Amino acid sequence: MNMKKISFLLVALALGAFTEAQATRDWLNDGELSECGSITCDDNTVWSAWYTNGLVSVDKATMEVKRYDPEELGVGSSCISDVAVDPTDGSLWLTSRSANFYNLKDGQMKVLQYPNAETRHNFHSRFSPEGDYWAFSLSIIGTFKDDVWQPLDYSDSPIARTSNYGFRNLAWDSNGDIWMTSSEPYYAVLHFTDGVVAGTYGTGEWLVDNISYTIYATAMSPDDKILLTTNENILVFDTKTEQFTEYPYYTSEKDFAMTCVTYDSKGLAWLAGKGMVSTFDGEKNEVVAVEGLGEDEEVIAICADGEDIWLATDNANIFLLSEGTVRKVAAGVEDTLIDTTVTPADSRIYNLQGQLVTNPVKGSLYIQDGKKVIW
Questions:
Q1: Are 202 and 190 in contact (CB under 8 A)?
Q2: Is the pLDDT of residue 198 over 90?
């Protein structure tokens, strides 16, 4: 492990406290993995992670960008799917598609594992108001207690009757209750009190109206309302009245998708998707111009730092929106999402997820000697 890089990590973490939960998005369609992103802020540093571009930090004072090789961090060649800063001790948490959870603290890397290690999962994480580390994936949600995985039981919810769904977000209301959202083919909001299902709300063939939406992202507002971005509109679920309200996007374009959402310190919602960013004030959705964001460049993660907004894109770029200005503070490798510092550099053949391939298929894209090659 490169102790110089680890030392920088520890210094950066020690200087700042966690301020804002990260927002993430990922896709796993028919077993094919596409880009996943995560971004989070503490007092001094912005951390972002990509499957294919590794871990990046941005110093908020100097805007200095640093990249970290997963191998040198102790994560190995696994794709990093999430990064989070522990609010209780400032340590760094990473998740990977290997079903491992990595906690970097005081120069030591502790590895925790989801019990079913044979199953690949794109885990993301949140911290509870008490500072407990929670993780969720396609149909899994749980926390670690004394380093042992403790799943949250949702078997009493109607959503447990179908296997084709994915959890999109995890949040806590002002009472400390847990709220989850799921999507495809049914959308639903799950409410937990003291670890027990207290309610399931939404539409689907097992509920009412037989209407189905695709939920892309969700976030909890300061007044305990859950904002959901869908393929049709914006949905707001009031946790007190248990009612949904629909709001139109600023455009009627078909297949419109805002795949990330977060709230800033003033309670304004920020939504982002492919080549677009907008705000939602509880009534109206308005577009925000982001200079330098490509038309086909997709925002895959967003977080709020006070009134500032940080974006991570599928091109491994990071944008800062602050006081009406836009700054592009980091950029990935042009025309590729593979950074040579995080790619296996030997004569063996790897797929784009860094996994060794013993029988390459002619005409397919692989990695060899740290470069993309067509076999």
A1: no
A2: no
